[in-house]
């Protein structure tokens, strides 16, 4: 019994060391989204393309209420919802990769978050447009409802408009292959088998 | 004027350094004033002192989602500014504290709560300190009791026969040690 007692400090040390080592590998910024398995919140926002340049160099939306984009945009397709802005430096980093995956057939919806419409339009015409639609969330209301806390963020939304996964940070080749692609493909397969 | 007496390079350099320091200090003080004024403007937007008192308490209680460990009141990140204005809006609309908390948790998860709800996932967090304290007290109690019992188990004094036996033993070993250590002296004797 006394011999076992001698080993207690060693055991405590090993357990503590193992726990701390495990903690080292964890990302302290990782924050599970509160909206996983919930529907995309309701919204009524214009498409970025519907902003027309105004006299003073800014852009204003010329659009009827009925033409607004809303959450039904996500129904019937598996989509990525990518939150971006022209003031976001990392968004510029991931932009070429988004063009790549959009070209391979992935449906990406853009959410232009708290941005100037004119600057955002310029960005897309200069760098290319990977988005099938770009929701213009000038005031950041939808971003707030989605729990966005910093661009870029990318949500995986299924064909019923339910959020299935969220990635915070740049989407690059590694992130796409390790985190998003398999989940995206699984949802696409579910949709295909349901449609048959 | 000082420039006239300042002919060498180092003297002039130190003078310009001093004036630069002065400028930086003034700038720092000015920006400090601006910061505090800015904070006040935000608070004053609420319609009643009761609301602004509640607002102050609430923004201190929620954690900024973007920052690792700052509350909404302390953080100057865009998301905290947005959330503060949302809280002000909800307060003006007459929302209760629970409604505001639910609003934030629905969007940003339990992460934003500095006082997490008591539920299955947080029992460990809430009760571990108390359990550990009780465990520590229990161990201390056991150790103290064992020491007391150990001390009382040794008789305070020896009986007469025991004392004689002890003396005999001591004498015996002493003489043995003598012969063992100094065999020559034993021979001389």
Description:
The complex is a heterodimer of chains A (196) and B (189). Chain A has six helices and nine strands, in the order ααβββββαβαβαββα. Chain A has helices spanning 2-6, 8-24, 89-103, 117-127, 141-146, 173-195; strands spanning 44-45, 51-53, 59-61, 69-70, 79-84, 107-113, 133-137, 153-157, 163-168. In chain A, the strands form three sheets. Chain A has a five-stranded mixed beta sheet. Chain A has a two-stranded antiparallel sheet with strand order 1-4. Chain A has a two-stranded antiparallel ribbon with strand order 2-3. Chain B starts with a helix and ends with a helix. Chain B is elongated and about 95 Å long. With 189 residues, chain B is mainly α. Chain B has three domains: 2-118, Helicase, Ruva Protein, domain 3 (Orthogonal Bundle), CATH 1.10.8; 119-154; 158-189. Chain B has eight helices and no strands. Chain B has helices at residues 2-5, 9-44, 49-59, 78-92, 97-108, 123-153, 160-181, 183-188. The interface between A and B is medium-sized, with 16 and 15 residues.
| Quantity of strands of chain A, as a count | 9
Largest sheet of chain A: 5 strands, mixed
Q: How many runs of DSSP E, i.e. beta strands of chain B?
A: 0
Broad shape of chain A: elongated
Cα end-to-end separation of chain A: 68 Å
Per-chain topology:
The complex is a heterodimer of chains A (196) and B (189).
Chain A lengths: L1 H5 L1 H17 L19 E2 L5 E3 L5 E3 L7 E2 L8 E6 L4 H15 L3 E7 L3 H11 L5 E5 L3 H6 L6 E5 L5 E6 L4 H23 L1
Parallel strand pairs in A: 5-6, 6-7
Antiparallel strand pairs in A: 1-4, 2-3, 5-8, 8-9
Chain B lengths: L1 H4 L3 H36 L4 H11 L18 H15 L4 H12 L14 H31 L6 H22 L1 H6 L1
Helix pairs in contact in B: 3-4
